[in-house]
């Protein structure tokens, strides 16, 4: 049986707002009415990968930041945005790999819960390949990937009409001080970490993308087809 195809769109370091804009364009493509010509090679959707160009705090469907908190975070020099993903407040910034799969789960034969578990499995596998065999996923509300009591990868997705958006944020060489200004994902008593912190060497986003993509193809049983990110 032929594997479904997913477009790979690598965006390098870009503003978070540009990632959201591109995500919305792919959502509109996949949500097109039946009979509308589908974009070539997008059987199951797209995998958008980038590194944020600047610091941004985001909140999800489970709760937003108060006006006072928003003003305080903006005073630090960060952007603050409300998104449609699941979860509470988190941070995105340089040194972090953002992966937003915009997928029609029906074409991949997946349910939403299976999709979230698959994202976790990809991040766990990446950690293992980097020499961190202790990485693991935990049950809700501890969604994401953990190394002990510290989260290395946050996951928050949105799904409507079987089409997903948003995804995961993996700390590679992220400045973890930014997380000190919020309660990440609303989890009191837990911490955050990065691949660089755990491995005691500088780990770049570019370094981890190839093994992550291999893990994605294996986990989702799909082909990745490169696309010019300007489309």
Could you explain how this protein is built, in words?
With 231 residues, this protein is α/β, with parallel strands linked by helices. It has a single domain, classed as Bira Bifunctional Protein, Domain 2 (BirA Bifunctional Protein, domain 2, 2-Layer Sandwich). Helix 4 packs across helix 6. The longest helix has 18 residues. It is globular. About 4% of the residues have low confidence. It is found in: Mitochondrion. Keywords: Acyltransferase, Transferase. This is Octanoyl-[acyl-carrier-protein]:protein N-octanoyltransferase LIPT2, mitochondrial.
Key features?
alpha/beta, nine-stranded mixed β-sheet, 6 helices, 29% strand, aa-tRNA-synth_II/BPL/LPL, BPL_LPL_catalytic
Structure described in brief:
The protein has about 230 residues and is an alpha/beta fold. The chain has helices at about 15-30, 65-75, 105-110, 110-130, 195-200, 205-220; strands at about 5-15, 45-50, 55-60, 80, 90, 95-105, 135, 145, 150-160, 165-170, 190, 225. The chain has a single domain, classed as BirA Bifunctional Protein, domain 2 (2-Layer Sandwich).
